[in-house]
From TrEMBL:
Keywords: FAD, Flavoprotein, Oxidoreductase. Pfam families: Pyr_redox_2. PANTHER family: 64 KDA MITOCHONDRIAL NADH DEHYDROGENASE (EUROFUNG), APOPTOSIS-INDUCING FACTOR 1. Its cofactor is FAD. InterPro entries: FAD/NAD-bd_sf (IPR036188), FAD/NAD-binding_dom (IPR023753), NADH-Q_oxidoreductase (IPR051169). Belongs to the NADH dehydrogenase family. This is FAD-dependent oxidoreductase. The keyword Manganese does not apply. Residues 4-284 form the FAD/NAD(P)-binding domain.
Length: 356
């Protein structure tokens, strides 16, 4: 009987796995990929989908075609480990081996009503909803963006270019935006935001959000808003949480896995991408490498070879500040201005066009 491998999530990790194994799939193996979207999407560009600078077709890439791979368009609701089954909204899918690559969701850190009253750029559907709401805002409306990390900064800069008529406020909990990057980058970005009339509030900790105002500390204050976008943090997709019964969580609540990405206490279930623990912060780059490594592990098992993974080396970070400028830390070198913007466009273009 054929062996059935099921891949949950056709994002960065899931598609890197599929692309790696594609030329090597043994004849007795069939693969199903389940995703709520009918194509792969370039998640690092969701901010541009939301701001309106990119059309939805620009962030979509077709799935690769192979006679032993089928794609199921469905919402994954539950993983039933003991029954080797995945329950989706419209299907039940049995598996012999399972790859979980379901990415992440927003982390609201228990801030009351944050989930209810804020918009998001975390999923394709949420980014599209955010864009629709922005398009309906009257001129002069106040958009508050919570979170001064990479996605908050990219979104704020692009929103400014698309909507010069909006008041944009960026709220950050630490004392500077992009707090993990070198000082030169932080200063450059801060200057860019100020030059483009994006008000930056640092050292503010949001404590509650209701339908009209954002409440924040350290001294209790509040501020009215017309629209609020949450970009303050992420956590692994909760659909994967039951797998913690067969593993442990790291400090970011990601699932600890073995060197071959298998659960430590359950065979044949593998976790990659934003759901999987790593010494590195979650990123598309990391998810892609993990998907590739997992593919190489599968190929080595099929070919009866020992699996010898190479250590993960990340190239760095690249960020857009609108369409013309950007910033980056690549192999330890700080890049500012047009160059990092162009490199990032090239990296995303290559990813999109080498997928199908
Ligand atoms: C605005 C923004 C900017 C970013 N910029 C960068 C950047 O510049 N560089 C970088 O390296 N990283 C960046 N990231 C992070 C990066 O996109 C993620 O770390 C990466 O996509 C994670 O890959 P993954 O495979 O774990 O999950 P994803 O790529 O998110 O894939 C998960 C897949 O699972 C599907 N899915 C989820 N839940 C379900 C369900 N219940 N049922 C069915 N399908 C489901 C989704 O549709 C998706 O296709 C950015 C993220 C955002 C939001």
């Amino acid at each position: 009987m054929n062996k059935h491998i099921v891949v949950l999530g056709a994002g960065y990790g899931g598609m890197a796995f599929i692309n790696t194994i594609l030329p090597h799939i043994p004849s007795d193996v069939c693969i199903s990929v389940i995703d709520r979207l009918p194509c792969h999407t370039i998640k690092p560009e969701y901010y541009a989908l939301a701001s309106g600078s990119l059309n939805e077709n620009k962030v979509k890439a077709a799935f690769p075609i192979h006679s032993q791979v089928d794609y199921i368009l469905d919402e994954v609701e539950e993983i039933q480990v003991a029954y080797h089954k995945v329950i989706c909204k419209n299907n039940e899918v049995a598996f012999d081996q399972l790859i979980v690559a379901l990415g992440c969701v927003d982390n609201y850190f228990n801030v009351p009503w944050a989930e209810k009253y804020t918009e998001s750029i975390q999923t394709f559907g949420q980014a599209m909803r955010t864009r629709k709401k922005i398009d309906q805002l009257p001129p002069g409306s106040c958009v508050a963006i919570i979170g001064g990390g990479l996605s908050g900064i990219e979104f704020a800069s692009d929103l400014r270019e698309q909507h010069p008529d909006l008041k944009i406020i960026l709220m950050e909990r630490s004392n500077e935006v992009l707090s993990t990057l070198p000082d030169r980058i932080r200063k450059y970005v801060r200057q860019h935001l100020e030059d483009n009339s994006i008000e930056v509030m640092t050292n503010v900790s949001v404590t509650m959000i209701d339908e009209r105002a954002i409440y924040y500390g350290p001294v209790q204050e509040w501020m009215e808003y017309d629209m609020c976008v949450w970009a303050a943090g992420i956590k692994p997709n909760p659909v994967a949480s039951p797998l913690l019964a067969y593993s442990n969580a790291d400090r970011l609540t990601r699932i600890v896995v073995k060197e071959n990405y298998e659960l430590p206490y359950y065979n044949d279930i593998f976790v990659i991408g934003d759901c999987a623990s790593s010494e590195f912060a979650p990123s598309a780059q990391l998810a892609h490498i993990q998907g590739k490594q997992l593919g190489q592990y599968f190929i080595s098992v099929w070919e009866g070879r020992e699996y010898l993974p190479e250590p993960i080396k990340l190239k760095g970070v690249l960020g857009y500040l609108g369409k013309k400028t950007g910033f980056g830390l690549v192999n330890g070198n700080v890049l500012l201005g047009k160059v990092p913007n162009v490199i990032k466009s090239g990296v995303l273009w290559m990813h999109k066009h080498h997928l199908g």
